[in-house]
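Course assignment 3, question 2. Fill in each field.
Student: A.L.
Task: Predict the tertiary structure for the chain below.
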Amino acid sequence: MENLHDKRKVYEKSQLIESEIKQNPIEQFRDWFLEASESSVISEANAMAVSTVEEDGCPRTRMVLLKAYTHEGFIFYTNYNSRKGKAIENNHKACLHFFWPNLERQIIIKANLEKVAENLSDGYFHSRPKGSQLGAVVSPQSQIIPNKEFLEKKLKELEKQYENTEVPRPANWGGYIAKPYEIEFWQGRPNRLHDRIMYQLEDLDWKISRLAP
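Answer field:
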């Protein structure tokens, strides 16, 4: 067994104080996200883990890219027939997680998920590079396939088919908006006395609390 007891660091880059935070968590997210986006050592600030609960009751987590956020919530796109899509269909709750180790920060978001309007999915799909569009058409995401060549052959066929024409968005591909009801902001601090600020939606207002680390 490899001993990892000494794998630790001191967190001391920043702090999270109630008098300095925004009263709305989306605004607080915006401030932190902008800092992460402008950091030279963070390559994909919009990378987030999305956890859903599958039929066997076990959570499943995967990394996706945040593509937009509004006062209503956080938007990402996927195949509706994928494992995550089927899990969301059966249980609309999910957890989103951002981790920016270079800033010693993480954000945990509990939310209800809904499909976005079709025109939004159309707009984003056609803004993607054509190769990405074709990839969405080619891949029966999460399904078992015979081999890698199966996808490559199908991709070449579609490249010829849509060489001079627009690729239609598949009906089973589109966006979700995660509408948050609880958001926690975590800032690493020395001696493991980390700052944890929790926003909880009560009716139409956000209640703010500090959690013990």
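Instructor remarks: Helices lie at 25-38, 83-90, 118-127, 130-138, 148-161. The chain is about 25% helix and 35% strand.
Grade: pending
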